[in-house]
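Work through what follows:
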Amino acid sequence: YLKGKMSPEDSPENPYLSPPTFPEFVSFILYARAHKDSRGDNIHWMPAAKWTDICQTEIDIVAKLENEKDELPYLLEKLGLSSDLLGRFLTKENASGGEEVAGKEVRELISELSENDQKELNEIYQLDYEIFEYEPVYSSVT
């Protein structure tokens, strides 16, 4: 579906292919899911409610990455781990920019999608929104 866009392995004659744009990536996922292609259910973009047993397990803590600077110290304390470990998790390379920055970036990316693609993403991730108390960024499309 994204021929010539995914990776150098997909096209050995041209190892400098660009990665797909966000709309192309979303189209790939939606296309793969619609055609029962397993690549559409890759764990990296699969709804969390589908790959976890969250509905059958009592959950004590749900830590959100956009709040990691506040939530990781609490989580380490609850797990009885040293706060010295915090530096391993909150490095410049892997610490999020916070909800405000992340939310703005997500809204900008979502605005590049067609209304139909936004609607399909809402449907795919609806249960995650409910379980993890998120509002769809693109809630104006229902």
